[in-house]
Amino acid sequence: MEYYYQEQLPESGRFLLEVDEAFHAVKTRRRKVGDHIHLTNGKGAVAEVKLTQADARKCEVEMLHYTIEKPFEPLFKLAVSPLKQEARFEWLIEKAVEMGVSDIIPLQCERTEKVHLKFPRLERLMIAAMKQSLKAFLPRLHPVTSFKTLSAGFDQQHFLAHCLPSPKTLLLPSNIHSGATLLIGPEGDFSETEIETALKLGVQAISLGEARLRTETAALVALGQAHHAYQIKNRND
């Protein structure tokens, strides 16, 4: 099974696939009249439809079955510094969507290098990753947000990974909850001032292990550890 993206997804009747998805279905996947495919609007709706007209420019489908899925659990917010090399950041975004996040926040820190994110391209990559991983919820991609702005909402469900030799906790079942925010800094780490500010506001400093990790690796390790801890927590509850 595979998903196609239909931002405006009616609950019944006949309608046209969006142009890009029509081309993909008919030209790339060789779908034909009578074939059944699955659509999602990225907001929880999943539909099974039948092709009634198979044209790459005008692909009509008929609704067969419409459902609303429960949100994927757990969902974490990932606040991560953009990278100078766009390909590395794009790869991170794809993998984060596959693993399951609710929000992706490009985080402008003191040591973040100047970058110009191509948001339309990032959104397309996120949609593709959502479809490929058969998820019905498209994460929210935030505009670039400064550390200072984000810090206004800091609490104990924010976890900050840093490299300074100071006390840190692990992401354990006892302290992780769905909806938590994982903070990952730039190459060169968060500044001492940023770390101090976060800790004063209740953020928990976390360790991702003894290895020194690049930003994109640290983000995925943090997500993996958070998911694992949450699964253990649910089994024990």
In which range does the helix fraction lie?
25-40%
**Spans where pLDDT lies below 50 across 5 or more residues:** none
Pairing-aware structural class of the strands and helices?
alpha/beta
CATH architecture of the largest domain: 3-Layer(aba) Sandwich
Instruction: Using the coordinates above, name the CATH class of the largest domain.
Output: Alpha Beta
Q: What's the story with the biggest beta sheet?
A: 7 strands, parallel
- Domain tally: 2
- Rg, rounded, reads 20 Å
Mean pLDDT: 94
CATH topology of the largest domain: Alpha/beta knot
Label this structure with key terms.
237 residues; alpha/beta; Ribosomal Protein L25, Chain P; Alpha/beta knot; 2 domains; five-stranded mixed β-sheet; 6 helices; 24% strand
Structure description:
It is a single chain. The protein has helices at 19-28, 86-99, 119-132, 147-151, 192-200, 215-236, and strands spanning 3-5, 14-16, 36-40, 45-53, 60-68, 76-80, 101-108, 140-141, 145-146, 158-161, 181-184, 204-206. It has 237 residues and is α/β, with parallel strands linked by helices. The protein has 2 domains: 3-68, Beta Barrel (Ribosomal Protein L25, Chain P); 76-236, Alpha/beta knot (3-Layer(aba) Sandwich). The strands form 2 sheets. Strands 6, 7, 8, 9, 10, 11 and 12 form a 7-stranded parallel beta sheet that branches. Strands 1-3-4-5-2 form a 5-stranded mixed beta sheet. β4 and β5 (60-68) form a beta hairpin. The longest helix is centred in the last third of the chain and has 22 residues, at 215-236. The radius of gyration is 20 Å and the shape is elongated.
